[in-house]
Specification:
With about 350 residues, the protein is mainly alpha-helical. Helix 6 runs parallel beside helix 16, helix 8 packs across helix 10 and helix 8 runs parallel beside helix 14.
Length: about 350
């Protein structure tokens, strides 16, 4: 099992390195001068040159990439004395550090990954992403929890009552749920629930998890603002989980060991819960892992439609203002989440099915 975990961890590191290379090259070949974005189009040449020197953009591209890797790495090498060096250990940039090794002017430290600063607000990118990350996680987890519970329940019902009216209706819902894009479902739900049925539902078209009290008594949690975006985000994974649970359960119920269990006289409930359902959930676990990661990354349109203050809104605003460090940090942040979730699911899948570890 240890070899299996180390192998998956190594694959995750390789994927992350590939993402870093692609993100760096992509955003360094795009048109636009970051110095002029920060100073304005009327900035003089001397100020532009100073900003580009501070950003390290006056150096060759390989040197810029090494500096970018050094900033992202938790263990990095810096210069302790030369403030004009691009490798200088600036406390204002890196915050608190733990020194591991010193050799002359060079030092090896442990620090938080540095994602640069926003061109527009001058704030650290990590702080900007942290503000929206919690809201995105809450939205994705609530949507995925609803999709899992409702999807498995409906899938079991369809497998037990195969070819019934419930089974046929669920098939229609699954096809529609997998076909319609999230942004269209978001607009449709906003129109139906926030405009047509607003008197009956009381749901808001826009709003985040925290609302401001009209009487100046601070903020409070507004649960009803979570319902529409979570429901919208849950429709596609719900449709897939229903179909996966139904088809996998029907396939497992035809296996030889199920017939053997019936021949031994075991009760239907014990056969169904202990033998059939457990083995039928393997593909569902894989789908859930992929969709949970996708919900964290793909909530951009849903958050923007419902004005949910998460990473999606941060990304859209950064793209609109050409704030490349925020976009780069968000892409890397989401990539790390995807890799981490897939790594944990690989371990879980290997525990559920020992054949995976052998292969």
């Amino acid at each position: 099992m240890l070899h299996f975990i180390l192998k998956r961890l190594w694959y995750g590191i390789l994927v992350l390195f590939g993402v870093i290379v692609v993100v760096f090259l992509l955003f360094n070949v795009l048109p636009g001068d970051p110095a002029r974005m920060m100073l304005g189009q009327r900035a003089d040449s001397a100020s532009v040159a100073t900003i580009n020197r501070d950003l390290g953009r006056d150096r060759p591209l390989p040197v810029q990439f090494l500096n970018y890797l050094n900033d992202l790495s938790p263990v990095s090498v810096h210069n302790r004395t030369r403030q004009e060096s691009m490798w200088y250990l600036d406390p204002a940039k890196y915050g608190k550090t733990i020194s591991l090794l010193k050799a002359g002017n060079a030092t090896v430290v442990i620090k938080e990954p540095y994602l640069r600063r926003s061109y527009q607000s001058k704030r650290p990118v990590s702080g900007i992403l942290a503000e929206g990350f919690l809201n995105t996680v809450i939205l994705a987890v609530v949507a995925m929890a609803f999709a899992i519970l409702a999807g498995i329940a409906i899938g079991i019902l369809c497998a037990v009552y195969r070819n019934s009216l419930v089974d046929r209706l669920s098939l229609i819902f699954s096809v529609l749920g997998m076909s319609l894009p999230s942004f269209f479902i978001a607009i449709l739900n906003a129109w139906i629930f926030a405009f047509v049925l607003v008197r009956f539902t009381g749901l808001n078209l826009s709003g985040s998890l925290y609302a401001v009290d009209d009487f100046g008594r601070g903020t409070y949690i507004e649960i009803k603002n979570l319902i529409l975006p979570a429901l919208t985000l849950a429709i596609r994974p719900l449709a897939i989980i229903v179909e996966l649970t139904r088809n996998s359960l029907l396939d497992v119920l035809t296996q030889d060991y199920i017939r053997t269990a019936r021949a031994k006289g075991l009760s239907k409930s014990r056969i169904f819960l202990k033998h059939a359902l457990k083995n039928a959930l393997n593909p569902v676990v894989t789908a859930v892992s992929g969709w949970l990661a996708s919900l964290l990354a793909g909530a951009v349109f849903v958050e923007y439609v419902f004005d949910w203050k998460g990473i999606g809104v941060v990304i859209v605003n950064a793209l609109d203002k050409y704030d490349f460090p925020v976009v780069m940090g968000a892409v890397l942040f989401i990539s790390i989440i995807l890799i981490l979730i897939n790594f944990l699911v690989d371990i879980l899948y290997g525990m559920l099915d020992p054949r995976i570890r052998l292969q």
